[in-house]
Each structure stands twice: as C-alpha cells, then as structure tokens.
C-alpha cells in the first residue's frame, strides 16, 4: 500500500502545473469532450508509466542497493529543482486534429510524458519500491486526479490556485524523498 500511496502523492503533486497538465487543459478546451480526453490520458498514462515502472524495477534489481539509493537521491533532488521551474506549453498554431479527442489525447500524452519528470519519477519510485504494478496504479491515479482537475475545472481553478506554492510543496516532497534516499545510501 505504501507504494501506491507514495507514488500517487508524488505524481499528483508533481503533475500540478506540468506541461502535460497544461496539455490536458488545452485538449479539453479544444475538443469540449472531457470524458474522451480523460480516457485518452488514462490509456497513455498506463502505457507510459507501466514501461517506466518496469524499467525502474529492472534497474533496481541489477544495481547494488547502496549505489541505487545514491542514484535515487540524486534523481529526487534533481526533480525537486526541476519542479521549481514552471512549465509552458507550445501551441500548434490551431491546426484541427485529425484523429478526434480520444486518439489525439492518447498520442500527444504518451509522447509528452516521454522523458517528463512524472515519467522519470515513476521510474525512480518503482526502483525504490520494486513494485511496478502498484507504482503504475498509484502514478496513474495521481495523473488522473491532477489532469482531471485541468480537464473538468481548469477554467475555474486557474485564477484561484497559486501555482508557485504548488511547485514549492511538490519540490519539498521530492527533496524529502531525496534526503531519505541519501540517508539510506549513507547508512547502507
């Protein structure tokens, strides 16, 4: 249960203000089909995070535990710093999408998550817990919560939530995970 809750909280918080959350808001605004957009986010996230969790678990099984703890510490501390920088979303010039709301969302989300901090965090959390299915469940639920807010409430929430504070809290979570991993490496 710790793997599900830990990965859920970390990804839900780190997704706030992330480029994929901005993409969710943009797709929901463009298509006006929130359930199709959220369904596309779900499919893309499961595929992307299952891959990331599998890779993270595989790496953790083949790298000595002390080295792994040190690598995780560096990654989490780096994610904390990365989180402090706000993301932006480049617009595509208003071209009409070819494949409809669901398929467009699946494709764009899967590509946007490649190398994104939430994907890399999923790899790191899976390496820490060595539970790829549970981590994928937690990170997918975290993505759906954060991106669901953008899809369904984006217009109303954008003026009320100060993203600067959300980024600071998220960075603090990454720093906490990083310092715990450093402590584990040092004790190991």
Automatic annotation (TrEMBL):
Organism whose genome encodes this protein: Corallococcus interemptor
GO cellular component: membrane
Family in the record: Belongs to the GDT1 family.
Top-level lineage group: Bacteria
InterPro entries in alphabetical order: GDT1-like
Phylogenetic placement of the source organism: Bacteria, Pseudomonadati, Myxococcota, Myxococcia, Myxococcales
Transmembrane segments: 34-55, 67-84, 96-112, 133-153, 165-186
Location of the protein in the cell: Membrane
Coiled coil stretches, renumbered: none
Membrane topology: Multi-pass membrane protein
Chief subcellular location: membrane
Pfam family, one: GDT1
Molecular function GO labels: metal ion transmembrane transporter activity
Keyword Membrane set for record: yes
Protein name: GDT1 family protein
Keywords in alphabetical order: Membrane, Transmembrane, Transmembrane helix
């Amino acid at each position: 249960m710790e793997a599900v809750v830990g990965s859920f909280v970390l990804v839900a918080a780190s997704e706030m203000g992330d480029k994929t959350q901005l993409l969710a808001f943009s797709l929901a605004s463009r298509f006006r089909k929130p359930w199709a957009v959220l369904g596309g986010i779900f499919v893309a996230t499961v595929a992307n995070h299952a891959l990331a969790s599998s890779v993270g678990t595989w790496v953790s099984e083949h790298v000595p535990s002390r080295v792994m703890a040190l690598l995780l510490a560096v990654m989490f501390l780096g994610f904390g710093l990365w989180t402090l920088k706000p993301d932006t979303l480049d617009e595509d010039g208003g071209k009409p999408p070819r494949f409809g709301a669901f398929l467009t969302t699946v494709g764009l989300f899967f590509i946007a998550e490649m190398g994104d901090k939430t994907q890399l965090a999923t790899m790191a959390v899976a390496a820490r817990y060595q539970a790829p299915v549970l981590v994928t469940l937690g990170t997918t639920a975290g993505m759906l919560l954060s991106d669901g807010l953008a899809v369904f409430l984006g217009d109303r929430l954008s003026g009320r939530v100060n993203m600067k504070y959300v980024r600071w809290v998220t960075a603090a979570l990454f720093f906490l995970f990083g310092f715990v991993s450093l402590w584990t490496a040092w004790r190991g």
